[in-house]
């Protein structure tokens, strides 16, 4: 049995100018954070580290600027105004490195969300493992919101209640993200991506409409494995249909390996006490040494734009950071180290309703580098880049750009590099 602490008494344990680390992505404890906001007047410059997705981030209200300062590993729309008001700053970091950073940071307090403990005195972190485990073990004080609706997931999320300083009662509310429905464009891109995925491969894919299209496009494959960051809800169908078996993975055989869950109640119900799914920290799932042991590892990621030599921007729009590094470079590097591995970037050819090409002369900012990608895919096809010269890369990428932009891109490239265009034969 555990004893519960009144939530105001738990919040009182936080130093007024201290450091609080929140769980990653959908793991933020809503009841605790509402209480923190309610008690904001007692804090002056409390530093909050977070990596939110599918969470309301009420604490990021610019009106609370004198009370809270935010340091974010992943920017999104919920913190947009906080960034403009100098209340929030972006901390670019590969997700594989964040657990180690927690050990260096030594936060005053870690907030976590966990399941009700079992008879053996263990509880599960449920949907968020990434750096959450490292944060709770590095913090002076751990405050846990017990959420009876949280799924029990196996692997590293299962911890002893002895590691928790204070328990508060949650209200059963979960952070949910509805599955994005792919359109025709995403389906066209996904069809090209699927041709690059062999049977018995181990795949990594993100979340969102394009990722869901990619997953759906793999329904004709056989005996796939999954080793990923965020588990995509669309993957449930492939598991139920026997496409994903995880039988040929050299590590974690028979299990889907991920570091967090973000989705709907259906996803959380599927994961609850499911022996096929295990979560591990990101310094395991995203580490190159781990991924390199998996043969035929296929990393499938997206981007905002790709330049004509293959550099990738997945963070900036109009010179403003709008996302984060996340695990993109981790998985791309891992794919490069995997025997038979492939590093794939998939994206639509245009943005702004066709007014702007996403294949560009120069990217606004670098998330991943030209030497870490094998293929770039748009609705117009596949550009194979590995082992190609800069001019060969440019020609391959121009070929999959939208036709309205191809000639201008070609002219700009050869003017900038001071070379003549290759003559057709």
TrEMBL record:
Domain Acetyl-CoA hydrolase/transferase N-terminal positions: 72-168
Gene Ontology molecular function, alphabetical: transferase activity
The EC number(s) this enzyme carries: 2.8.3.-
Keywords associated with the record: Transferase
Domain Acetyl-CoA hydrolase/transferase C-terminal: start-end pairs: 263-412
InterPro entries recorded: AcetylCoA_hyd_C, AcetylCoA_hyd_C_sf, ActCoA_hydro, ActCoA_hydro_N, NagB/RpiA_transferase-like
Sequence similarity: Belongs to the acetyl-CoA hydrolase/transferase family.
Name of the molecule in the record: 4-hydroxybutyrate CoA-transferase
């Amino acid at each position: 049995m555990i004893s519960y602490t009144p939530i105001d008494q738990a919040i009182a344990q936080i130093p007024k100018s201290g450091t609080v680390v929140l769980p990653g992505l959908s793991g933020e404890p809503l009841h605790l954070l509402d209480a923190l906001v309610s008690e904001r007047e007692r804090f002056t410059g409390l530093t909050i580290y977070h990596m939110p997705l599918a969470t309301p981030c009420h604490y990021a209200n610019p009106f609370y600027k004198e009370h809270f300062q935010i340091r974010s590993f992943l920017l999104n729309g919920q913190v947009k105004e906080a960034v403009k008001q100098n209340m929030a700053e972006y901390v670019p970091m590969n997700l594989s490195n964040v657990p180690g950073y927690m050990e260096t940071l030594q936060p005053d307090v870690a907030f976590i969300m966990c399941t009700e403990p079992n008879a053996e005195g263990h509880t599960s972190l449920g949907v968020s493992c990434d750096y959450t485990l490292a944060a709770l073990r590095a913090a002076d004080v751990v405050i846990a919101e017990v959420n009876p609706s949280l799924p029990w997931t196996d692997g590293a999320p299962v911890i002893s209640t002895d590691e928790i300083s204070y328990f508060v009662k949650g209200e059963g509310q979960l952070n949910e993200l509805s599955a994005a429905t792919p359109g025709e464009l995403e389906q066209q891109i996904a069809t090209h991506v699927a041709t690059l995925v062999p049977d018995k491969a181990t795949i990594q894919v993100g979340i969102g409409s394009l990722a869901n299209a990619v997953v759906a496009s793999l329904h004709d494959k056989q005996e796939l494995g999954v080793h990923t960051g965020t588990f995509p809800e669309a993957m449930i169908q492939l598991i139920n249909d026997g496409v994903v078996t995880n039988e040929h993975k050299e590590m974690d055989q028979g299990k889907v390996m991920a570091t967090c869950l973000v989705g709907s109640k259906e996803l959380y119900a599927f994961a609850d006490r499911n022996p096929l799914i295990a979560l591990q920290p990101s310094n395991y799932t995203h580490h190159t040494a781990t991924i390199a042991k998996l043969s035929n590892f296929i990393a499938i990621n997206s981007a905002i734009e790709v330049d004509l030599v293959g550099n990738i921007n997945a963070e900036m729009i109009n010179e403003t950071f709008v996302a984060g590094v996340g695990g993109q470079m981790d998985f791309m590097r891992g794919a490069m180290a995997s025997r038979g591995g492939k590093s794939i970037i998939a994206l639509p050819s245009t943005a702004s309703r066709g007014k702007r090409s996403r294949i560009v002369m120069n990217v606004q900012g670098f998330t991943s580098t030209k030497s870490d990608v094998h293929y770039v895919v748009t609705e117009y096809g596949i550009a194979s880049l590995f082992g190609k010269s800069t001019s060969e890369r440019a020609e391959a990428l121009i070929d999959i750009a939208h036709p309205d932009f191809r000639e201008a891109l070609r002219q700009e490239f050869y003017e900038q590099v001071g070379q003549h265009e290759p003559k057709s034969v």
